[in-house]
Amino acid sequence: LLFPVSNLCGKCRPRDTDLLQPSLNFLYWSLHQTTPCSQQRAVAVLLSNVSLLELLQKVLECTWLRSPPSEPAYLSSEDALLCSGWLLVASLLLYQHRYNTEVHQTLSLDLTEVLNAVIFRKKKPILLLVSIMQFLRAVLRQNFSSSLLVIVGQNTAQGATQPQPPSPQDAALYPLAMWQVFSLVVSLQNLLVHKDLVLSQAVVACLETLVEYLYVKNQDVALHVASQPWHRFLLFTLLNGGQKSFLQPEVLRLMALFLRYQSSNIISQKEISQILQEAAEANLAELPEATSRALHLFLCQV
């Protein structure tokens, strides 16, 4: 079925949402819900379809070309198609790298536009933000070096009218700039305050991947980002709800992240002891799967 469905997608236009959205979903799940052997073949089939990749290019570009909806929580058919497109491309990036699959057509994206889609959200629905963050994680994990993706656009100093020579920090973080990193971190922090489970999981995962990327590029920058005092205020905000327990997935993963990068000004021995005490008193068999995984990660980091 991959052949006719992918060929059908290649003949469509981005506005053919009723046909494209379920078709892209089918391609996405075909990649994820199959055996490793079949998965490798599926990736090869999709990456050999030039028309499909050209369509995906057009779909992704619609993210910043269309006007934002009046209601941010409302997921229109156009937004649903964008979600499917970003998730499918993120998966293709992941599996193309894993299997070193031949690429017949590259995708070209402006990194500044992608980052601005998250930094300046403009009432984007939560699921669309989650989908774009999945894509960001994929390119960060691959160090922006995927043979499937070409990053275009020049970084300039924020607000500058003429391109400026990059600072040593910007040069080390290329193609990211320092102001983009801090803007993205602040935006991710603000998204966490929404306390939406799906959004929180995506935000923390994106923050983890971003700091890992920064640590490889410039350890001082990574440690500086991880030790921002605003993180501590964020933790207090997350704990200041109906459920004050530390045993929340996003809280545990953030704590593990701060422990990993030795941010002692963010997490203290007192908080570590409180988490260990709550874990000792909890019925571990009844914890949600996301909480169990986050607790395991935290304990391993301790």
UniProtKB/TrEMBL annotation:
InterPro entries, alphabetized: Immune_Signaling-Apoptosis_Reg
Domain of life: Eukaryota
GO biological process terms, semicolon-separated: meiosis I
Segments forming a coiled coil: none
Name of the molecule in the record: MEI1 protein
Gene expressing this chain: Mei1
